[in-house]
Every structure is written in C-alpha cells, then in structure tokens.
Amino acid sequence: MFNQRKNRSIAAILALSGTLTISGLHKFYLGQPLWGLLYVLLSWTPIPKVACAIEGVWYLAQDEETFDRHFNMGKSAIKSSQYVSDRVSSIAEALRELESLRQEGLVSEYEFEQKRRQLLDQM
Questions:
Q1: What's the burial of 35, exposed, middle or buried (CB within 10 Å: 0-12/13-18/19+)?
Q2: Residue 19 near residue 53 (C-beta atoms within 8 A)
Q3: How many Cα atoms sit within 13 Å of 47 on the Cβ side?
Q4: What kind and span of H or E run contains 100?
C-alpha cells in the first residue's frame, strides 16, 4: 500500500469523514501510520477532528501536481501513463520490425519466437 499511488479525492473523503467517525484514517491511507495512530489515540479530544477537517479542505484545495509532490513522491498519473504508452509503442514497433525480419528470412522461426517472448515479457 505504501508504494501505490494515492488519490487526492479519497484522501480528502477519509479526512473529512474523520470529523464524524474515526479520525486518522486518511493518515494511514497516505502512508503516515504514526500520525494515524496519534489521531486515533487522541480521538477522545476534539483536536484530531479539527485537524481532519483542516486537512480535508487542504487536500481539496491543492492541485494534483502539489498533492503528487507531497504524497506520491512527485509521480503524477499523467507522466506514468505516458511512460507506459511510450513503452508499449516502442515494443510494438520492435515486434513489427522483428516480424519483417522473419518474413524476409533474416531470422529463423526459433530466433523470432525467442525474441518475441523477450519483448512481450518487457510489457
């Protein structure tokens, strides 16, 4: 869970729900278990409920880039999906070139299958 990408909306919903229910769930979600534990331990006071309300509004007020910088180690979903798209495109192009080499007889059927599997394993 610590390595998964965190969603700003979910963090805000968990923080705002902490004003009515268990405080600190958003801290566990965001990979800050010590803060989450502190919120739970102080739940008999109004302090965590006020903090949850402030943080929920803060998460909603941030843009995606700022949230990603704080809680996703700077990795945005757009950059990640662009990288995956570029990677798939390059592998597809390599497969096309390999197929043309096979059709021209420059690569044996066995070599073709080995290289094809290597390329598909990279996806």
A1: middle
A2: yes
A3: 10
A4: helix 77-103
| Calpha distance 32→89 (Å, rounded) | 37
Global pTM? 0.57
Q: Count CB neighbours of 59 within 10 A.
A: 25
Q: What are the C-alpha distances in Å from 82 to residues 64, 74, 91, 102?
A: 16, 15, 14, 30
List pLDDT tens digits, range 61-103.
988 888 888 888 766 655 556 666 777 788 888 888 888 888 8
Among all chains, which residue has been given the structure tokens 């309300």? 53
Please give the structure tokens belonging to residue 68. 């990603």
Q: Which amino acid is at 120?
A: L
Distances (CA, A) of 96 to 12, 50, 82, 93: 45, 59, 21, 5
How would you label 95-109 residue by residue, b for 16+ Cβ within 10 Å and e otherwise?
eeebeeebeeeebee
Q: What six digits make up the tokens of 103? A: 């059709």
